[in-house]
Amino acid sequence: MADSELPIVLYHYPFSPYARRVLWYLSLRGIPYKQCIQPPTMPRPDLAQLGIKHRRIPVMAIGRDVYLDTRLILAKLEDTHRSLPRLGAADPQSRGVGRLLAALTLDTDIFLAAFRLLPEDKLPMLREPEFQRDRADFVGAPPGGWASKAEAVHRFREVMQVLETTLLADGRDWILNTSGPSLADIEAVWPFHWLVTLPQQALPPDQVSAAVFPRVFAWIDRFDRAVRATKATAPRPETLGGGQAAALILGSRFHDDAEGATAGPEYCGADGGVAKGVAVRLWPTDTGVNHRDTGRLVGLDHDEIVIETTLAGGEAGVRLHAPRHGFRVRPVAGQETGRL
């Protein structure tokens, strides 16, 4: 079976700005996939059927391998369906621009600034006690406390100004001056598209608008129209229930050869590494830290951590992949052979 024949199942909820990154990518490349729609708050029993406790959305399966974190998901998708044109850049300089843009929008306070600017008076769900408790568990308190709305607007303006006066300054349509949207555009546009396209106005028009940042707003609109156009021709996703999705994934073969990765001191520090087969815990270090997965360590290298989950009945579950960046892995107490 070719990799293109392995089922892709995306667990998401439609208004997640992170899920949109993956949905855009799938649509722009025309990759067929199935989806399992999730509630915006915990619990998520559909993922529990795969032995997964991780709470961040989206989560994507290719065959029996399940991937966490949108950067890792997009990297894996770049290597699938090779008959379709990729969105990632071929030359090192352009790839570098894309990676720096991903760091700018994913590793800084941009998302928290955007979240702070959501209009609570116009989005009733934000005021619901259940949602507030869920997001408190998810985000916690940012270092230094939450920014004021004025500070969040300033942060948004700051990054928009960079885009307006550098990457988009020459009037190009796309970040890398390509003929259509690339992976670099996805990496850069998502937090701005999220707020700019809200039906409920989130940004003060005298400070953040098409009049103030004409090139950025034109780029966001152009990107939105490009994605909408591809949706008209892209394969329509089949929506699966949790049981259907789990059966499909658990009945598939593995996509990645994770057994080839090495857990050794060259990746883990001078004090040694966790041995393959040892029970470990895996969790993100920024948000959703209270939801930790336990499993057998299958593989570890400079880029990726892979564990095998266990199903409720004790059977082997899926191989769960997370990037090294932003995630931590530790041996379960009593099984230490070193620290990662």
From TrEMBL:
GO cellular component: cytoplasm
Stretches that traverse the bilayer: none
All residue ranges annotated as the DUF7962 domain in the record: 114-231
Superkingdom per UniProt: Eukaryota
Domain GST N-terminal: 10-82
Protein name (record): Uncharacterized protein
Organism taxonomic ancestry: Eukaryota, Fungi, Dikarya, Ascomycota, Pezizomycotina
